[in-house]
């Protein structure tokens, strides 16, 4: 069965109904929000990890950051660079595998890299003054 043949909306509604029966005491919005998060994780992870380890983006960015053992994770500059590396890795993974993005393509990732790079520059200038 292909993705086009699967009615995801119907499946999600069936799962929601079953979960509400199994767990009737929580807030009415709790389970639907979690199901939305499962869907979001799935489509985003397609872009970050399709064809590879589901946590590969974290592993690859972590491996890059491990090359710099004296960086402080609480440094706002390092935070901006980490976010930038996350986007860079995702773009490289898309290129590496040749798959189509479902959430953000390479162009949008490059835009995010520009934004994070500019923020890192501003943060670095702030400490100079």
Order of helices and strands: HHHHH
Cα Rg: 19 Å
Look at the structure and give the mean pLDDT. Answer: 92
Helix content: over 70%
Largest sheet data = none
Number of strands: 0
Q: How many distinct helices?
A: 5
Fraction of residues in β-strands = under 5%
Low-confidence stretches are none
Keywords:
mainly alpha, single chain, 129 residues
Explained architecture:
This protein has helices spanning 8-22, 30-49, 56-66, 76-97, 106-128. Helix 4 (76-97) runs antiparallel to helix 5 (106-128). It is built from five helices and no strands. It is extended. The mean pLDDT is 92. The protein starts with 7 loop residues before the first helix and ends with a helix. It is mainly alpha-helical and 129 residues long. It has one domain.
């Amino acid at each position: 069965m292909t993705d086009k043949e699967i009615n995801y909306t119907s499946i999600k509604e069936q799962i929601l109904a079953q979960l509400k029966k199994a767990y009737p005491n929580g807030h009415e919005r709790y389970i639907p929000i979690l199901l939305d998060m499962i869907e979001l994780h799935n489509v985003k992870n397609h872009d970050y990890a399709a064809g590879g380890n589901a946590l590969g983006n974290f592993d690859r960015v972590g491996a890059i950051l491990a090359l710099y053992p004296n960086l402080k994770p609480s440094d706002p500059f390092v935070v901006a660079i980490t976010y930038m590396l996350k986007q860079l890795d995702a773009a490289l993974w898309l290129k590496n595998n040749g798959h189509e993005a479902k959430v953000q393509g390479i162009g949008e990732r490059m835009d995010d890299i520009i934004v994070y790079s500019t923020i890192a520059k501003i943060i670095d200038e702030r400490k100079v003054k």
